[in-house]
Amino acid sequence: MSDLDGGPREAPPVEADEPDRDIEKAPRRLAWRVAILYALIGSGWILFTDLLVNEFVRHEGRGVAQTIRGFVFIAGSAALLYLLVRVLAGERARAHEAERQERRNLERSEFRYRHLVEMLPGVVYRNEIDAADPTLTRCVYISPQIHELLGYTPQE
User: Which residue has the higher pLDDT, 103 or 14?
Assistant: First the structure.
């Protein structure tokens, strides 16, 4: 790469993959929003139904009306909780299935790669550099063809 004057230009720095903080905070924000919404709806339900009961039910029947009102609120809350858990469980099951599929795809890919490497008419090997001493390397893989070509087993 070069600038307009023809001289070399530095490549832009490559940014490291950092976790997206918004994605990490999203579940917490959603939980707070749901809790606040539930508190607002619950409070509104209590205030609104108190007014209705006081306005339309005679004093003798208010106890029964308040009990029915409470059971309706519990039934509604239970239904919403059921729907929420059902949605979350479905998402979890889909994520688990996607993970299993990815694992199967990786295993198939590894099998194909290993088969390709073992069918090559030459030796394939992989070395790793020693973290403590970068001048040293160690062999972490060597293909079985080493035995046919040099008479050594890969373990030797």
Answer: 103
Going by C-alpha positions, the residue among 69, 77, 63, 79 that lies closest to residue 48 is 69
Confidence of residue 135 (pLDDT cuts 50, 70, 90): confident
Asked if residue 140 lies in contact with residue 124, where contact means CB atoms within 8 angstroms, the answer is no
Q: How many CA atoms lie within 13 A of 139 on its CB side?
A: 10
Report yes or no: 87 and 93 within 8 Å, Cβ to Cβ. no
Q: Write down how long the chain is.
A: 156
State how far the Cα of 111 lies from the Cα of 105, in Å rounded to an integer.
Answer: 10
Q: Domains of the chain: which residue ranges?
A: 23-119, 122-156
Residues forming beta bridges with residue 101, ordered by sequence position: none
